[in-house]
Amino acid sequence: MGPQPTERGDVQVTNTAPYSAINIPEAMNRNRAACDIVFGFAEATPTLAPAWRYIETALADARDLATEVATLATELAAARLGHANALAAMRATIAAQRDGESDPLYYLRDELHASRNASERRAGADDD
Questions:
Q1: More confident of the two residues 19 and 103
Q2: CA–CA separation, 45 vs 100, rounded Å?
Q3: Other residues' Cβ atoms within 10 Å of the Cβ of residue 72
Q4: For residue 4, how many other CB atoms are within 10 A of its CB?
Q5: Is the pLDDT of residue 9 over 60?
Q6: Which of 22, 48, 96, 125 is in Cβ range 3.0-4.6 Å of 101 for a Cys bridge?
Q7: How far apart are CA 52 and CA 36, in angstroms?
Q8: Exposed, middle or buried: residue 92 (CB in 10 Å: 0-12, 13-18, 19+)?
Q9: What is the C-alpha separation between 71 and 69, in angstroms, rounded?
Q10: Structure confidence at residue 128 (pLDDT)
Q11: CB atoms within 10 A of CB 91
């Protein structure tokens, strides 16, 4: 049995990382091996060159798709983390208000500042 929520109503976050049934590095290794096999067959049977080029193009497309999936998975993880951090700041703000803290909105301001800085760092990295 997992941890129980506290009396304040805190929630346990489950499944914090998206998992894919596809192992991208393993798929890319198979793709590279298939490219090598096709290259060998293309050299051995030049009369089938158009068919081998078609297969090579399909393998290149699969490689590009895998790269895009990996990029999107990274972006999704960052978005999920941002959402979790914002939700935590909201909950902290509500708890601080309930506890009578002098500046309960501090938690939201801090998270907004942190997320803005992270966005600016990512934008700067994209410019490089």
A1: 103
A2: 80
A3: 10
A4: 8
A5: no
A6: 96
A7: 11
A8: middle
A9: 5
A10: 58
A11: 15
